[in-house]
UniProtKB/TrEMBL annotation:
Superkingdom assignment: Bacteria
One Pfam family per UniProt: HTH_3
Classification via SMART domains: HTH_XRE
Molecular function terms, GO-annotated: DNA binding; DNA-binding transcription factor activity
Domain HTH cro/C1-type: 7-61
Protein name: XRE family transcriptional regulator
Keywords, sorted A to Z: DNA-binding
Stored InterPro entries: Cro/C1-type_HTH, Lambda_DNA-bd_dom_sf, TransReg_Diox_bact_type
Keyword Transport: no
Entry GO CC: cytosol
Length: 100
């Protein structure tokens, strides 16, 4: 899993700067940077707050952080085929544009 990468990508896709997003989450920019670079592992309660501020349900954040190596070998081919479409659907569904 690469939850830090997904947090960073999602934050950037929503046009949020690291410093302002860290403030929204009640943490320092340094700590957010460490999370996004997988140096620090956030608590579940902090992950909930991050997911909330990204307007994503926590299970979706976890799902998006899955990598091919997290999937059993016999299902990796299906993962590679399906994941781009699933990510696209999730992005469309949780896009801020839909709320407007």
């Amino acid at each position: 899993m690469n939850i830090g990468k997904i947090i960073k990508e999602t934050r950037k896709s929503k046009g949020l700067k690291q410093q302002s997003f860290a403030k929204m989450c009640g943490i320092t920019q340094t700590y957010l940077s460490q999370i996004e670079n997988n140096v620090k592992e956030p608590t579940t309660s902090l992950l909930r707050k991050i997911a909330e501020n990204l307007n994503l349900p926590l299970p979706i954040l976890y799902f998006l952080s899955l990598e091919k190596s997290d999937i059993v070998k016999r299902k990796q081919e299906a993962y590679e085929l399906l994941m781009p479409s699933i990510k696209s659907l999730i992005n469309q569904f949780f896009s801020d544009d839909i709320e407007k």
